Each structure stands twice: as C-alpha cells, then as structure tokens.
Amino acid sequence: MSSPIDGLIADLDAEHAHLDEMISGRSDDALNIATLAEGWSVVDQLSHLAGFDESAALALTDPAAFTTELAQLIEAGEDPIVGYTNRGRSLSPGQVVSWWNSARSGLLAACRAADPTVRVPWYGPAMSPMSFITARLMETWAHGVDIADAWSEPIVGTARLRHVCHIGVGARRYSYAVRGLDLPDADIRVELIGPAGDVWTWGTSATEVVRGEALDFALLVIQRRHRDDTSLVITGDSANEWMSFAQAFAGGPGPGRPSAS
Question: How far apart are CA 152 and CA 155, in angstroms?
Fold first, then answer.
C-alpha cells in the first residue's frame, strides 16, 4: 500500500514530467527568451530549479554536508540564487536542460530514500520531508508558470495544485512576518474549486472568506498574477489584506505582478 509521501513524490515526478514535456525540443532562441521575472530568461529559470534540486537532494541524503555547505555560503556572503544563475549562464541552453534533468532525477531518488520521520535542513527553517517535497513541487510549478508565460502557453490546472494551495494557506503567517507585520487574529476560510470540480477548504470562518478557482488562488500566492486579474471573491478586511501580498515562497517580500487590466 502506498503512503502519503509516495503519492507526493509521484506528484513531484509528474510536475517534473510536465515541465520536461513543455521544454523538450525548444530551440536555443526559445530557451534564451526573457520571462516576466525581471532579468531572468527561461534558461535562468531552469538553472534556478537545477541548482536548488541538487541542493535539496544533498539536504535529504547528507544533512551534515548540506549544513556545512550552507555555513560556508553564509560566511562568504554568497547568494546561491546568483551562483546557480551564473553557472547556468556559463553553459549552453542544451546543457542547462541536461543539468536540470540530472538534478531532478537525483532529487526524486533522494526523496524515495528519505526517512519520513527526520526533518530536513534548508536555507530557512528545517522541514518535515512531506513539507520539503511539497515545497519543491511548488517551486517547479511556479517556475514552470514563468516559462509558460514567456512562451504564451496556457496554464492548465491539475489536482497537484492542491499542494500549492495548501502551502499558500499555511504561509499566511509568513506573508505577514516577512513584511514585519502582525498577523491578525481573524480566521479565514479558503474555499477553492479544483480542476475536477471538487471543493478544497481550509479554515472555518463564515465572515472572512476567499472563494474561487484553485488555479487563480495558486497563481496569486506564488505572485504570478495580480489579484485583480483573478476571479477570486474575497470577503472581509483581513482576507483582503492577506490577498494583497500573499506569498507561498520563502525569501524576502515578493514584488508581485502588476495588474494586466
């Protein structure tokens, strides 16, 4: 019988496969095209994924080595995002694609061998393996959205969006903390319609509510769409405040995206 972590790893594998299908056979010109992330091309997006997938595999298989490597980066004042971007820019587009394919294969192998009871170190707080793998899925999907947008490809929702939405809801406190704001006491109910028509819910509030399509919510919390460009219905002061800067990813306050309207 498969366990929850097995199903999550299968979803990560499927998300990788979706992105791989989208980029396979693309020309160097297509891979070098600019994305909406300022200063980043498609190649840069793939380099980011490749580098952090490699680091994630190390964190899962050799936590001590990852912790030592992280301490060295901090001591040297080096930013891994810049390092992975520069590494990718020293390679041909085809080599970057190969790098990502190798890195994601290594990550999946590490996920399958991981002890589900041992917390995984990372650039922020350590996480459970379930949360860690969910975060890698979210990152893969988010950067895949950037790539799809650069090529004017449609963003098609799948049941895997539930993982992204779950992180988005869980990161509400972080969205405030990273901006130096206090989290309001209000409970917020999030009620989303998944791609298959099923309803996903979090929270119990009857007065503070976010309702709509799961795809819209997921795009908003990864800051790839402005709230005005979604069909979300947001009720309540705290819900509206949260949705104005919701952030599912780690790091500093994200700049968000301007409204297309």
Answer: 9
